[in-house]
Amino acid sequence: MRAGSLCYGPAILVGRLTRFAARLRKPGGGSAVPGLVVNRIAPNYLKRTLSGFPQGLVVVSGSAGKSTTTKMLVAILREHGVDVFTNPSTANISQGLTSALLEQADWRGRVPGEVAVLEMDEGHGALVMQGVDARVVCLTNVMVDQIDRFHDSEMVAGMLGRIAARAGESVVVNADDAYLERLAEKVGPDVSVRRFGVSQSVLDAAPRGLGYTETSTTRLDPAAGVVIDSVEGRTTTLLDEGRRVVAGLPARGTHYAVDAAAAYSTAKAVLGERFSGETAARALDAIPAVFGRGERVTVRGQEVEFVLVQNPASYQLNVDSIEPGTSDILFAIGSDVRDPSYFWPADASSLRRVAIVSGSKAAEAALMLAYDGVGIDRIEPDLARALDDFLAAPAPTAGVKTIVFSADSMRRTRAHLGLTGTE
Amino acid sequence: MSFTIVSLLPTLQNTNGDAQNAQVLAMRARWAGLEADVRAVDDAAVLPDRVDAVVLGSGSDASLEASRERLLGLHDELRRWGTEGVPILGVGTGWELLSWGIETGDGRSIEGLGILPGRAVPRAERVTGDLVVRSPAFGMLVGFENHARDYIGAEGSPLGRVLAGGGNGRDSGQEGVVMGSVFGTHLHGPVLAKNPAFADRLLTIMAERAGVDYTPGGRSEEVDGYAAAARSVQARAAGVEAPDA
Ligand SMILES: [Zn+2]
Predict the structure, then answer these.
(1) Residue A350's domain is classified under what CATH number?
(2) Residues B99-119: pLDDT tens digits?
(3) What are phi and psi of B115, to 5 degrees?
(4) Residue A423 belongs to a domain
(5) pTM metric for this prediction
(6) d(CA B160, CA B138)
(7) Which of residues 179-218 of B touch A (CB under 8 A)?
(8) What CATH architecture does domain B2-237 belong to?
(9) Is the CB of A344 less than 8 angstroms away from the CB of B128?
(10) What's the number of domains chain A is made of?
């Protein structure tokens, strides 16, 4: 089945030619330019196409975890035999989104798929979603990340509220997030609210809580939603209407279990009677380890663990997940972190010693680590040189070589080491 | 003797990691061979007997009233510390709450605690970015600012002159306010880590009051090298040359 409309033929043709031209200049690379062109000459294309999927549009947004949640949700729906259109996580502003739709569109602009699952940045989402009707909106959490852009959590909560207001059928919220719970109270009478959340024992086992701006004081009653009963290593057990569903996770850590519960609950909202817990668990089991999120790879004959830092909460969780005593750590913060101030509340003292601090924000990162009492052997702002020297050094005396990096440093690392792979 | 550094309202007032300035003071004291502890104080009931320095960070506008309520319970202590010369560092909305008052962009007016002269008034547009200040006492101060209000009435005693960024605004060309040992600034986050001269000034006041000697030592030389590197990168990005003074 296809979403879209006949009248966009000429605009699509122009968009496709633009895409073809963009490809000639930059082989293999997609571009937001075709989307920009189509948005100019057919401004309603995005709105109409997004609203035109036979089984509707599902939007995942929130401060952290939306990318993983979206991937998990898509996997669960596909495992149920649903034909899904989804956007690459980088394409969540309108030009990028239109380009992503054009990638899949036929010559009349129709996009195959029964249902669309979109990851939406909380900043652009409110704008892109103007005039677009969603069936289900899933909100992961409110964290004070990207302070440069959003200034404070109130503003983030406000933007998420505008995205949630587009949901016609269900809003799926994290019950442990007090901001989202307040937001859920405001949805219309025809919209159902579905919830997911951790059990008290899971919360107690998280050394520093869940990292939300404000955590709800009470835990979700298993009768009122999907409860994360336990998290052990890369396995979680969910409680769903009296059933226990055991599922694998792409990496260690409570936040992956929360993402899985979010995806599970949202799939239930989308599929209704067709939903099967076993099928969902099978889909979650099959998701490969996520690059840059605790994934181990072999590079230049060495086993290396990658740890991605995106916001204060994931920074704390990921630092905590590094085996204490790990002797060889490379720590790289790039220009994507405009102001590292908001990482300061996290406590990195468990790292004890870092071999190399790198990236364009190396000095800021070193300063932050030093005041957590972490020893630093060397500062090398040139990431390529830091990587070469780090990997050329002898095998670590304890643990595996571990690289902690921001998203920008991750991309540069991947490019320098010739690693491809998902996200 | 062990220094007790109070981190005030760290749950409500720590948007940018400004509360970690308490940790910076404690760490530098330890590097200098002195004992120091940080105590998180969210209300008067848990106030320690001994207070050598106070750090109050920045929060969101939504928490202004709630923070003010909590601070009112500490009003007498804050006044006393201010007069006795206990160093107090207020950052962002934490500073604003210590002023005469705050006028928000949505028309609210919040009475401050009156510890520092001046008041916060709405500015046309939020300012977010690098802030570089020339301070007579500390040389060049470098950091980030992120605020929706200007600050008026600090003319007599600013922290310094703005070289790049917004600062107090209203064409004052100034940043911050100083009253005795009480400091207010828009330089958010770990301002004391990035500007060790500022930190050492507070530590020297603390040491004098306690009758001990403070000489920066231990790791501070190495770590202040990181600070110097971070400062020069940021000052250059803000278009200010000759970063160290
Ligand atoms: Zn820290």
Answers:
(1) 3.90.190.20
(2) 999 999 888 999 999 999 999
(3) -85, -30
(4) no
(5) 0.69
(6) 9
(7) 188-190, 193-194
(8) 3-Layer(aba) Sandwich (3.40)
(9) no
(10) 2
